[in-house]
Design a protein that fits this description.
The protein has 181 residues and is of the alpha/beta class. Helices cover 23% and strands 29% of the residues.
């Protein structure tokens, strides 16, 4: 994809996501800042903040679990190098703890793909598997939404016993629902 394609996809993705009833009524959304070739999320994060939504962003811990901090705009982000492999944009401010995600009404999840059953394929580090398990243990009823390109919605992805289906996937061309929250 060209840089213009990536920008156009980010705008379309934000528009589709903002139309979700779950996001229209959300007070707290746990999200992430896209990296590499992932669909862009900054336009969506800023639009949520403009609506008065409290946006939580992850900070990667040494054990691959996630801590959380508040997003207050692009200037609240710091580039953090994690080993030799990746740099992530993470919130600069106060850390709220790994359990802060349980306050979210909606959790926006990254992924490599999602299949026709709503099963999400992650990058393999287990960070979001821990988040989903934490939500389940807390009895949280957050809507789980994956943000992907259209080509990343596939027939089937590999599944592990600990994997949980998501409620919906948002792509630049639309929304596909798998189950109700």
């Amino acid at each position: 994809m060209t840089a213009d394609d990536v920008r156009a996809s980010a705008v379309a993705l934000a528009e589709r996501a903002l139309d979700l009833p779950e996001l229209a009524h959300a007070r707290v959304v746990a999200a992430y800042v896209s990296v590499g070739t992932e669909p862009g999320t900054l336009a969506l994060l800023d639009a949520l903040r403009a609506r008065g939504v409290r946006v939580l962003l992850p900070a990667l811990l040494p054990d691959n679990d996630l801590d959380w901090g508040a997003y207050t705009g692009e200037d609240s982000l710091a580039r953090v190098q994690h080993g030799k492999l990746m740099a992530l944009l993470e919130p600069r401010g106060e850390r709220l703890g790994a359990d802060a995600v349980t306050d979210a009404d909606v959790v926006l999840l990254p992924g490599l793909a999602v299949d026709a059953r709503g099963m999400r394929l992650g990058r393999g580090g287990g960070s979001y598997d821990r988040v989903l398990a934490r939500l389940e243990r807390a009895g949280a009823r957050a809507s789980l939404v994956v943000l992907l390109y259209d080509s990343e919605v596939v027939e089937r992805v590999p599944e592990e016993p600990h994997d949980r289906p998501v409620h919906a996937v948002v792509t630049p061309s639309g929304v596909r629902r798998f189950r109700e929250p």
